[in-house]
Design a protein that fits this description.
Ribosomal_uS13-like_H2TH; zinc ion binding; alpha+beta; 10 strands; Helicase, Ruva Protein, domain 3; binds zinc ion; N-terminal domain of MutM-like DNA repair proteins
Length: about 300
């Protein structure tokens, strides 16, 4: 968290607001946040924001003019606890969650006053990071060049999945396919009725097609709910949700049917959902519709997961 649907929704909402905005200043109160030194964040002042886009789980914020010698992109990775939000008030000095601030004026939504695009991070760790790269460096930077094809809206046919890896390990590996983390991996594998620790090479064509379709449906379904509102399939009350709006909430309610629902009934067959743990990873699965009635044992798991 946040993964492809959350990043895509963030990018769409922020782009519609701040594209074309003038940059007053940019700074990084998070001392370890910026991983590049040139161009410096100071070079953004006086320029404009050319818009936001997404690659995998990365947010790409474009800038031009000001002190920049050429158009540049601020590449941001929110890691597990970061958010990119837009605020109409300046950040207070006591807000310890602030890692990076770009102060803007105006934008595509016609807002005339000053606003702050803020990278905030919750929890004690400083893991979220940014790189400011000239545009001709973006595609060759290792954080971008090592990414696999996008998991949505048109994932590859999955014949190239590494045969000896587990499904769970492979679809979470950004070099194999970009955009899926531990949250949506649980939902996708449950939707496709596939065992998380199955070897990729064991899948037949029909199962590969099922997995690909589950990526499209699950990631696209979550994004649709964020952007258009509607009924959250995981909400027992079935009360329609409103579309997301700025500033994005600190905690986005995710429409999850299995992830973190260990001990609750499988929405498909009522079997109690189980979890397996390995190092810092936890996966939730249904032993009826995913692993053929057999729960995983942890010893088997630790051997299998060394991939
Ligand atoms: Zn089930």
């Amino acid at each position: 968290m946040p993964e492809l649907p959350e990043i895509e929704a963030t990018v769409r909402l922020l782009d519609a607001a701040v594209r074309g905005a003038e940059v007053d200043s940019a700074r990084a109160p998070g001392l370890a946040t910026m991983r590049t030194f040139a161009p410096s964040l100071d070079a953004l002042a006086g320029g404009t924001c050319s818009g936001l886009r997404r690659r995998g789980k990365l947010l790409l914020v474009g800038f031009e003019g000001g002190g920049l010698e050429a158009p540049a992109t601020l590449v941001l990775h929110l890691m597990s606890a970061g958010r990119l939000q837009l605020w109409e008030k300046r950040a207070g000095p006591r807000d310890r969650t602030v890692r990076l601030v770009v102060r803007l004026r105006g934008g595509a939504d016609g807002f005339a006053e000053e606003r702050e695009l803020r990278l905030r991070e919750f929890g004690t760790k400083q893991a979220a990071w940014g790189k400011l790269l000239l545009d001709d460096q973006v595609a060759v930077d290792e954080t971008i060049s090592h990414l696999g094809p996008e998991a949505w809206p048109d994932p590859p046919d999955l014949t190239e999945l590494p045969p000896r890896r587990t499904l769970r390990g492979a679809i979470r590996d950004q070099r194999v396919i970009a955009g899926i983390g531990r949250t949506w991996a649980d939902e996708i594998l449950w939707t496709a009725k596939l065992a998380p620790l199955r070897r990729c090479g064991d899948l037949d064509d029909e199962q590969r097609a099922r997995l690909r379709q589950a990526m499209i449906d699950v990631l696209g379904g979550a994004l649709g709910l964020y952007m258009d509102g509607g009924v959250d399939p995981a909400d027992p009350d079935g009360k329609p949700r409103k579309p997301l709006a700025l500033p994005l909430p600190d905690k986005l309610p995710l429409p999850l049917l299995v992830h973190r629902r260990t001990g609750q009934p499988c929405p498909r067959d009522g079997t109690t959902l189980l979890a397996v743990h390995y190092e810092d990873d936890e996966m939730t699965y249904c032993p009826t519709c995913q692993t053929g009635g057999k729960p995983y044992k942890d010893r088997r798991l630790s051997r299998l997961l060394k991939d």
